[in-house]
Amino acid sequence: MDISILFSLKQPIYEQIVTQIVAQILNGELREEDQLPSIRKLASELKVSVITTKRAYEELERAGYVHTVTGKGTFIAYQDKENVKLNQIEVIKNELRRIVPDCKKYNIQLTELQKIMQLIYEEG
């Protein structure tokens, strides 16, 4: 499992962890019943607090991406790919709802925003 934390981002660290684990589930890098590192081990590897990784795992469990077996660990849960995709689309819509008002405030037209999004999409 490969997770990179950017401390310079405004996005909270636990959200960065959640986002990257979800992405790895969606693209098939993490499969059903794969075991995640322990909360302490991941915290140590990422050089973040145990509380941060615990919160990330709690968010993943709340969203249905993982399940925890007491004494055994945290595992990737079965994912209905179509349902996961719909959930991710909602997350993206919420991010766009946050960004679009700034675009309007700075008079960035929809066509300009579309060009920016296409450039970013092609970079990744």
UniProtKB/TrEMBL annotation:
HTH gntR-type domain: residues covered: 11-79
Any one Gene Ontology molecular-function term assigned to this protein's record: DNA binding
InterPro entries from the UniProt entry: Tscrpt_reg_HTH_GntR (IPR000524), WH-like_DNA-bd_sf (IPR036388), WH_DNA-bd_sf (IPR036390)
Keyword Transcription regulation in annotation: yes
Keywords on record: DNA-binding, Transcription, Transcription regulation
Matching CDD domains: WHTH_GntR
Protein name (record): GntR family transcriptional regulator
Taxonomic superkingdom: Bacteria
